[in-house]
Amino acid sequence: MKRVLVDTNVIASFLTERNPTQQAKAAALFEAAEGRRVEIVVAQLVAAELVYVLQNAYGVSRVEAAATLKDLLAMPGLRAVDTLPWPRLFELWPGVLPDFADAALAAICEAEAGSAIATFDATFRRRLARLGVPSYW
C-alpha cells in the first residue's frame, strides 16, 4: 500500500473551504485512505502546524482545534508518526531545503519506504523532485 505523508496545507485544504480545487484533491486522498487504498502519514510537526493554522488563520478555538485533530487522527487509513531522522534533517536544512518543516517531511519520507509527499506547495514539490523524493501529485 502506498504511504502518503501529508503537508499541513493538504489537511488545511481538506478541513476548510480556502481553495475548492485543493479541497477536492485532498478529499479524494482522504477517501482513498478511508478505503485503505493508501495510508496517510501525519507527522507530529504537521499536527502542531495544523493547530497553529486553525487557531491563527481561521479563528478556531483550542477546544474545536483539539476535537478536529482528534477526529482527524482517528480516521481510518491514517497513522501519526513522531519520529524524525535528525541527522538527515540537518543534511537537508537549512541548505537544501530552507524551510524546517519541509526538510523534516522530506527526511521522514525518505525513512518511510515506499512513501510520497502530498503538498500543494509547488516550490516544495520542485525541491523534492531535485532530491528524488516522490510527490503524490
Quick check: average pLDDT? 97
- CATH architecture classification name: 3-Layer(aba) Sandwich
Measured by DSSP, the beta-strand proportion falls in 5-15%
Give the helix tally.
7
Kindly report the oligomeric state of this protein: single chain
> What is the topology, as strand order, of the major beta sheet?
3-2-1-4
Q: Segments where pLDDT lies below 50 for 5+ residues?
A: none
**Percent of residues in helices:** 55-70%
Major sheet description = 4 strands, parallel
Radius of gyration: 14 Å
**H and E string:** EHHEHHEHHEH
Please identify which CATH superfamily we are dealing with: 5'-nuclease
CATH topology: Rossmann fold
Class from helix and strand fractions: alpha/beta
Number of strands: 4
End-to-end separation in angstroms reads: 16 Å
Describe, in plain words, how this protein is organized in 3D.
This protein has 137 residues and is an alpha/beta fold. It has a single domain (2-131), classed as 5'-nuclease (Rossmann fold), CATH 3.40.50. Helix content is 58%, strand content 14%. Strands 3-2-1-4 form a 4-stranded parallel sheet, with helices on both faces. Helix 1 packs across helix 2 (20-34), helix 1 crosses helix 3 and helix 5 (86-92) crosses helix 6. The radius of gyration is 14 Å and the shape is globular. The chain starts with a strand and ends in a 6-residue tail after the last helix. The mean pLDDT is 97.
